[in-house]
TrEMBL record:
It is found in: Secreted. Signal peptide: none annotated. Belongs to the peptidase S1 family. It comes from Drosophila guanche. InterPro entries: Peptidase_S1, Peptidase_S1_PA, Peptidase_S1_PA_chymotrypsin, Peptidase_S1A, Trypsin_dom, TRYPSIN_HIS, TRYPSIN_SER. This is Blast:Chymotrypsin-2. Its main location: secreted. Keywords: Disulfide bond, Hydrolase, Protease, Secreted, Serine protease, Signal, Zymogen. GO terms for biological process: protein processing. Pfam families: Trypsin. One of its GO terms (cellular component) is extracellular region.
């Protein structure tokens, strides 16, 4: 069972929300002098009430939302999105290092502990360039061992057909902590975020080398954003899946969050769904039982 996150963090570190190898982990890197100065000038955001600072999601709002759970205790580990009856998209750091037999996918609920159904994982594929360069290619495709039964609370989300326009409003949903190092909320949370294009995002982030074209940047002025437990969760607009939560500064402190861009990885996703191949960029789990 993943351990509860219980470490202190300062505003001079960067947080990657990740769970791997059965242990909750944090990746840290120094902020630049400009970033530290900006944080010291009162852009710390709010650590109160949300996904950070979101609200409870109503049943049926995000029918594609899943909770990735461990088989032993069904604890919530990460989020993800249903893209058809057999496949789920999530972040690579949510599944990397796990045996597929250990993982369960819970669907059709706003209460992760009370799903409409749970499914076994047959296999998953992590992008072969995951974390090369640092914090990039953080995307994985999960294949279930049975077809999801679609109903009024469980449906797939469409893949994007065009890139995002700067300033687009997106919906973030997840069971991530509603405060830094807080517990997983019982109810699914929602927040409205704004897409920030790459040049603008890099200007705000002082040309952070860990932010790349493969990411979708989001920002709000109300202290909203992703936190630990939201990882892999869906970011949608106009009924299409545009992002999967990857990393950000520790939980809504006033800097953009970075999400894996689903539009950027469309070719990879489609090639993986066609079946294993030698030329595809993938890393199959294939761990021994």
């Amino acid at each position: 069972m993943p351990l509860r996150l219980a470490y202190a963090i300062t505003t001079t570190t960067i947080l990657l929300i990740l769970l791997c190898s059965g242990v909750a982990a944090i990746r840290e890197a120094p902020l630049s002098a400009k970033q530290q100065e900006r944080l010291s000038q009162g852009v710390s955001g709010s650590f109160q009430g949300r996904i950070i600072d979101g609200s409870d999601a109503e049943l049926g709002l995000a029918k594609y939302q899943i909770s990735l759970q461990g088989a032993n205790y069904y604890d919530h580990m990460c989020g993800g999105a249903i893209i058809n009856e057999r496949y789920i998209l999530t972040a690579a750091h949510c599944v990397y290092g796990y045996n597929p037999d250990y993982l369960r996918v819970a669907t059709g609920t706003v209460r992760w502990a009370e799903p409409d159904a749970r499914y076994f994982v047959e296999e998953f594929w992590v992008h072969c360039n995951y974390n090369f360069p640092d914090y990039s290619n953080d995307i994985a495709l999960i294949k279930l061992n049975d077809s999801i039964v679609f109903n009024e609370v469980t449906q797939p989300v469409a893949l994007p057909t065009e890139p995002l326009a700067n300033g687009t409003e997106l919906l973030l949903t997840g069971w991530g902590s509603t405060e830094l190092w807080g517990d997983t909320p019982d109810l699914l949370q929602k927040a409205s975020l704004t897409y920030v294009d790459y040049p603008t995002c890099q200007q705000i982030m002082d040309n952070d080398p860990m932010n790349a074209h493969c990411h979708v940047c989001t920002l709000t002025t109300g202290g909203q954003g992703a936190c630990h437990g939201d990882s892999g969760g869906p970011l949608t607009a106009n009924g299409m899946l545009y992002g999967l939560v990857n990393w950000g500064y520790p939980c809504a402190v006033g800097y953009p969050d970075s999400h894996a861009s689903v539009y950027f990885y469309l070719d990879w996703i489609r090639s993986m769904m066609k079946g294993p191949c030698q030329s595809c960029h993938c890393y199959a789990s294939n761990y021994p039982n």
